[in-house]
Amino acid sequence: MTPHTIAIVTPTLLLRPFRRGDAVRFAAAVRESAASVGRWMPWPRADYTPQMALAWFADCATQWRAETAHAFGIFSRDGRELLGGAGLNRIDAQHRSANLGYWVRHTREGQGIATQAARALLDFGFDTLQLARIEIVTAQGNAASAAVARKAGATLECIARNRLIVGGQPVTARVYACVAPVPAPRLARPGRGVRRAPTPARVVLRALRPDDARTFLAAARSSRALHHPWLHAPQTPQQFRALLARAAQPDQHTHLVCLRDSGAAVGVINLSNIVRGAFASAYLSYYVFAGHERQGLMREALHAAVRHAFGTLRLHRLEANIQPGNAASRTLVRACGFTLEGFSPRYLKIGGRWRDHERWALLADA
Q1: Angle between the 113-123 and 143-151 helix axes, to the nearest 10 degrees?
Q2: pLDDT, tens digit, 9 for 90 and up, residues 307-345
Q3: Which residue among 75, 140, 277, 341 is least enclosed by CB atoms within 10 Å?
Q4: Measured between alpha carbons, how far is 184 from 245 in angstroms, rounded to an integer?
Q5: CB 355, CB 347: distance < 8 Å
Q6: Please, what's the largest Cα pairwise distance for the chain?
Q7: What is the Cα 45 distance to its own chain's centre?
Q8: C-alpha–C-alpha distance, residues 339 and 179, integer Å
């Protein structure tokens, strides 16, 4: 998994690895936060420079490649404003555990930014990295960080003496933790009680980018026969730009599904018409590109998208509308726990025709 393949979108944020072009505004955010964030962390300084930022980015890239830490910048959803940073560090591959940290620049504190980022990285850690446990360690007295841990769903497990160094001195800390749901054990062979190790995620979901146009359109064009007559994926640069414009809307979350190792495009998953408040729902649509079908890749991706919807986005209901003859799509949603709720004649216009659809839905756990 390489940094350039990863981007995480939440209702108001974009999380992505830092780039060289972020150095100036990163340094400005650190200088602004030297007193507030620097109270708890040793690295924020009033004289922090872009050169220091570049050195830090290089170190982050090294840790990405070694898979010992994954650092993200926290940006406004349009990517224009750098709001802070968050990441998973001290990744222990043997025990599938990590530490989650976060910070928000001084002028944007108290706006729920760290909580959104923490929830998104918990999903990333459990779904993509296949972690079993993620800890959040907060110094005693850091009430804001502790509040974020609780709001993100972490449980206080213990008070640890001399757990952190703050201001050069060892201090007591609160250790919060989240654990992944434990799957039912599978047997290596019938009659033998040997458990298999969890299968690592083969795919990742990331935000669609303008520089995806060439590979996306080539994949979509080669998939026309596979998609016919169920859908019409963008085939031209103009249609791709229209897809990007829709993806930028606050009620849309469009994910490009990529192979974790190579970054190759596998397909698309879209959450659309996202409604908040009492309804807390969205419509789910998806398609796979030719060459990646019937390998279980979209099933993995759909499971991750569901966890994103019910976890990061805190939705209650997802609805997938499927044409009656589309057996592959019906099999996919059924495997992910969706239930057939009804049938709607002439429900959606596809390829210039109003088409009947079955309505499949999935609800979040109570």
Answers
A1: 50
A2: 889 888 889 999 999 998 898 898 899 888 899 998 899
A3: 277
A4: 41
A5: yes
A6: 70
A7: 30
A8: 27
pLDDT score of 207: 87
Q: Do domains 3-179 and 203-363 have the same CATH topology?
A: yes
Strand ranges of the sheet holding 353-363, from the earlier edge strand across to the other edge: 203-207, 253-259, 265-275, 281-288, 317-322, 353-363, 339-350
Q: How far apart are the first and last CA of the chain?
A: 34
Q: How far is CA 210 from CA 29, 232, 237, 243, in A?
A: 27, 20, 10, 10
Q: Which residues contact 82 (CB under 8 A, 6 or more apart)?
A: 22, 25, 26, 29, 73, 74, 75, 105
Q: Which helix (H) or strand (E) holds 250?
A: none
pLDDT of residue 4: 61
Phi, psi of 149 (to 5 degrees): -60, -45
User: Where do the structural domains in the chain lie, given as residue ranges?
Assistant: 3-179, 203-363
In this predicted model, what pLDDT tens digit does every residue of 214-261 receive, in sequence order?
999 999 999 999 999 999 999 999 999 999 999 888 899 999 999 988
Positions of the chain with pLDDT lower than 70, given as ranges: 1-5, 181-200, 366
Identify the pLDDT of residue 192: 37
SS3 assignment, position 349: strand
**Which CATH fold topology does 3-179 show?**
Aminopeptidase (3.40.630)
- Residue 231 to residue 228: CA distance in whole angstroms: 6
Structural contact between residues 270 and 252, judged by C-beta atoms closer than 8 angstroms: yes
Predicted TM-score of the model (pTM): 0.63
Strands 281-288 and 317-322: parallel
Distances, alpha carbon 277 to alpha carbons 225, 234, 274, 281, 315, in Å: 40, 32, 10, 9, 9
Question: Are the CB atoms for 25 and 36 separated by under 8 Å?
Answer: no
| CATH 3.30.1330.80 is the classification of domain 203-363 | no
